[in-house]
Amino acid sequence: MKLGKIFEEFRKESNNYEEAKNKYEKWKLENNIIVLEREEAFNIKKKYKQKQNKEVQRKYRLKREYNLTIEDYNQMLKKQDYKCAICGKEKKLGIDHCHKGKHVRELLCNSCNSMLGFSKDNPSILLKGIEYLLSH
């Protein structure tokens, strides 16, 4: 029986909400092990559902935004040796894509992807940045 239903039983037995609440709290203390087991089972189930939802959302987002499957993404990861296409570091990699043509380029870490984004994907801005760094 779920905890909410147990509380409802106490509410049916008593016309007074506070009395029912007190009985329920007393019952929870007396049956602490059962309550903890139920709450733990509930939390495990909730985390599992959240994980499933994240996976479903990720799968949907990959398809909707980039027309990729998870298998496509994993294949790209493997092809890049699980490293960012620019800096070569093993980090969490996101999908870099052209905002004009919408085509997928490669996988980049957040720093490298941000660098391209802040430069508005403009090579001349990036080259000026390189020149600036070399001169200082």
Q: Could you please describe the fold and organization of this structure?
A:
The relative contact order is 0.06. The longest helix has 35 residues. The protein has a domain of 55 residues: His-Me finger endonucleases (His-Me finger endonuclease fold). Helix 1 packs across helix 2 and helix 2 crosses helix 3. The chain has 136 residues and is mainly α. The chain has a two-stranded antiparallel ribbon with strand order 1-2. The termini are far apart.
Global mean pLDDT: 86
What percentage of the residues does DSSP assign to strands (E)? 5-15%
Specify the CATH class of the domain at 82-136. Alpha Beta
Strand order of the largest sheet: 1-2
**Rg result:** 27 Å
Q: What's the oligomerization state?
A: single chain
How would you sum up the global shape? elongated
Largest sheet: 2 strands, antiparallel
What are the segments in which pLDDT stays under 50 over at least 5 consecutive residues? none
The CATH homologous superfamily of the domain at 82-136 is called His-Me finger endonucleases
**Count of alpha/pi helices:** 6
